[in-house]
Structure prediction request, 492 residues.
Amino acid sequence: MKLKASVSKYKRIALAGILFVPAILLLALPSLKPGEMPYWLLTVGRFHPVILHFPIVLIILALILELLRRRNILKADYVVTIILVAAALSTVVAIASGFLLFSSGDYTGRLLQQHFWIGVITGACILVTVGFYFVYRSFPKLYMLYFVALLMSNAAVAYTSHLGGSLTHGEDYLTEYFPLIVSKEKTEEKPESEMLLYEDMISPVLEAKCVSCHNDDRAKGEFSMSSFRSMVKGGESGHPGIVADNPDSSELYKRIMLPEDDDDRMPPEGKTPLTSPETDLIKFWIQSGAKMEVRVQGIRGDTAVNAAVGSVMPDLKRYRRRLQIAALKDKQLQRELDTLAKQLNVTIRRDSLADENYYMLSMKFPPARFTGNEFRELAPYSDVFSKISLVSSGIGDDALYHIGHMTNLRALYLQKTNLDGSGLIHLKNLEKLEILNLSYTKIDDKSVLDLLKIPNLREVYLFQTKTSVDVVKALQEYKPGLRILLEEGPYL
Prediction:
């Protein structure tokens, strides 16, 4: 019997050792550069979102059972063993499929890299946990080593799952409602008996779907919807936005009813369109004289309107909640950017011409020097800038690596800096970049060719650079949509 127990003991230790080896090897996985994969392997990678649920559920279940065992509520040694072995096997399969999915190149970015790294570490933790389990079964005094590893594995699984969810739903998916939870500003719902058609139903719809582009600060098409008076006035079309009693003559209603493929349709492609019940309510309101005092309860007699009210009503709370979250986020972001501007000695202000909530960064006088440290401070906010002006900041081409991560950048002003053009290749992924000013830099004929790799660039300033007239002409002939101007150009 002693011999049999001794053999079982050494088998467990050997099994633990077998688990520790792949755990260590897993940590080297992120350093591998994936090559070209066969299509069948890439197809296997697509199953990663399905497979990953197995180790997640199993390691959580193992912790629950272990807690029950510690309280003597349940004795399930063999069940825990089976679950942990299954967790180890499914972990290897999940990470392998994740690596194949990563190798496809369909997903990129900082968040993906974080998810990949933390996922590998989590997998290593699970394998080590299972290894410690078999060590503890041979040496019961080492139980706490196994139990602590089990707790750490569950914590790692939770964080990895959060990163995976952020990849799918956005980085603030889990924390989106936190501002509302801690906010002291509470919105009170009006009873329907007190609700006004325009103020409490139509205005929230317009605010949720239209006002971000049509407000007093950012009046796209010179049309602001911030107030009833500005809507009546209309925009650059010259036609009034609202004509009482006549929806078909009201520019607002005409634009929201245009076909989806019409360039003048509002909201434009990529924005959330108004629903049929929402457009029906707007039409009814205008037909009824576009009056402010019309009550919702007073129009319930009309069957069609009643149906539209019933359809829109549930959405109103969601619209208000979304707007409240956005307003709280904007305030928090503004506070953080104000603090950052003081820290870096620069000016950061809202870009009033942008369609979304973007910001501009520019130098004060005298300009502050920008180094890797300053760019690291900017990194968490890289996607909120639409315009950057680093004129006379002394930056070199290594700075373009950091700027290349500012994915929403539309205009970049780099006059009188130390650029020689060797880093322009880092801007090739800025799909929204349209204006680039490189005047008074050392850009030459060789490096200027990298400008062709910036997909939507339409305007470049090359005054007092080392580029030749012949190369500039050749570039303009090759890419007619790109204007290359040999003049100083704007500073912001």
Summary: Residues 192-326 form one domain. The two ends are 85 Å apart (CA to CA). Residues 397 and 423 are 5 Å apart (CA to CA).
